[in-house]
Amino acid sequence: MSEILKNLNSLKSDKHKIFMEKLVRSKYEILGVKTPLLRKFAKDLSKNLSEFELLNFIKFEDEIFEMILLKGFILANLKCEFSKKLEIYNNYIKKADNWALIDSVKFKKIDEYLLFNEINLWLKSSDEFVLRAGFVNLLYYFVKDEYLDFIFKTRNPQGYYAQMAKAWLICECAIKFPNETLSFLKSKNLSDEIFKMSKSKIKDSFRISNNFKDEISKIVY
Fold first, then answer.
1. Per-residue pLDDT tens for 83-108?
2. DSSP conformation letters of the chain
3. Most exposed residue of 13, 22, 160, 185, measured as fewest CB within 10 angstroms of its CB?
4. Distance (Å, rounded) from C-alpha 73 to C-alpha 4?
5. Per-residue buried b or exposed e for 5-28, using 16+ beta carbons within 10 Å of the residue's own CB
6. pLDDT tens string 36-48
């Protein structure tokens, strides 16, 4: 553990530390290690440590942002049963207090059935970042025709970071399923805050047609 922290300290930058402290606003100590360097370090550790050693490292409690995110990167690519990954990931997202710890961790392979069941539970949470994990995992893996109805019926959460995650999800739906998403937006089943966030994300996207953007400009909540 001390050797890993020593390596992280050798990669840190005071300039990046100041930038990240403003960007993520975490209660955890931020060293200032850039994400590509952190990903590379996670990859190196995954090659050099056994699964047992990696699991023990991930389970160890920490109060440093980069150490927690490093564990997230290792977990995402760990070669173990997906049910085991989800068990550990559940604890991981409960420690998250910022968007970066959620958004940066993406599983290389998933068990769709198990993950979808967990998402259903996360979306019922009162924790803003557990909720965000639910929406973010939906947009990473489940923006598919068979899940659209479920996505459109998800709750309208409170909390800026959960709301923004749902808006991001709706934008992703607009990219892949413009007709269905436009119909959904016209049904006015979003909260006013999330509709405004979705509209902003859609208008900023280069992958959505101007015609779609013109149509949502006409929608008044």
1. 999 999 999 999 999 999 999 999 98
2. -HHHHHHHHHH--HHHHHHHHHHH--SSB-----HHHHHHHHHHHHHHS-HHHHHHHHHS---BHHHHHHHHHHHHH--S-HHHHHHHHHHHHHH--SHHHHHT---SS--HHHHHHHHHHHTT-S-HHHHHHHHHHHHHH--SGGGHHHHHTS---SSHHHHHHHHHHHHHHHHH-HHHHHHHHHTT-S-HHHHHHHHHHHHH-TTS-HHHHHHHHT---
3. 22
4. 14
5. eeebeebbeeebbeebeeebebeb
6. 999 999 999 998 8
Among 198, 89, 218, smallest CA distance to 154 is for 198
**What torsion do the CA atoms of 2, 16, 165, 72 make, to the nearest 10 degrees?**
-20
One-letter amino acid of 56 = N
In the predicted structure, residue 1 carries a pLDDT above the cut 70: no
Cβ atoms of 43 and 6 within 8 Å: the answer is no
**CA–CA distance, 204 with 197 (Å, rounded to integer):** 11
* 4-25 mean pLDDT: 95
Closest to 58 (Cα-Cα) out of 41, 76, 75: 75
